[in-house]
Amino acid sequence: DKLVRDTLMTKNNLESSIYDYRHKLDSNGEWKAFALESEIASIYDLSQKTEDWLYDDGENVTKDEYLIKQENLDKLVNPIKQRMEQYMSLKQLLNHASMRFDGYQVEIPNNAEKYAHLTPEDQETILANVQKGRDYFRDAQQKLQSTTLNKAPPVNYNDLKNFLGEIEKAC
After folding, report:
1. CB–CB of 58/66 below 8 Å?
2. pLDDT of the chain along its 171 residues, tens only?
3. In 51-151, which ranges are E strands?
4. Long-range contacts of 90-98 (CB under 8 A, 24+ apart)
5. pTM summary value
6. Do residues 53 and 69 make contact, with C-beta atoms less than 8 angstroms apart?
7. Cα–Cα 20 to 30 A to 74, which of 19, 131, 146, 165?
8. By three-state DSSP, how is residue 140 classified?
């Protein structure tokens, strides 16, 4: 009884994935910009074949057979999802870095008492580091803006995060 329920649930999940993937890849779908046309065509093709199989030979098969079909679809979709996640993470990091740099640039000159322990040279060094960070992140932003979203990002998230950490440490 549990096996029958699990098998039916796995079958339903596969069917839902087919519709969900198609929807996310249609003209207004959230994955569309991150997918190559060849990837979309492959996913649509496999989705249609899997849907046809579900209503014919796949009507009464084992849970493992449904899982294999799901894995095959996921293998095609995962690169698109990963690309999207990379771009979203980079966007968040760039926004965070910009806010941090803005904060440093405003904080030091406008809070003389708080930073009285720093020599003018130290303050200049900090502001120079902030500007270095701004330049580095502006360059990364420009690279991101000049590439299409259906390709791997031209900048590395960890490199940017590490660079931001170095700048914050220097500040």
Report:
1. yes
2. 899 999 999 999 999 999 999 999 998 999 999 999 999 999 999 999 999 999 999 988 999 999 999 999 999 999 999 999 999 999 999 999 999 999 888 888 888 788 888 888 998 999 999 999 999 999 999 999 999 999 999 999 999 999 999 999 888
3. none
4. 90/140, 90/144, 90/153, 90/155, 90/157, 90/160, 91/144, 93/157, 93/160, 93/161, 93/164, 94/137, 94/140, 94/141, 94/144, 94/160, 96/164, 97/133, 97/137, 97/160, 97/164, 98/134, 98/137
5. 0.86
6. yes
7. 146
8. helix
Separation CA 91–CA 138 (nearest Å): 12
Kindly report the number of other CB atoms within 10 A of residue 10's CB atom: 18
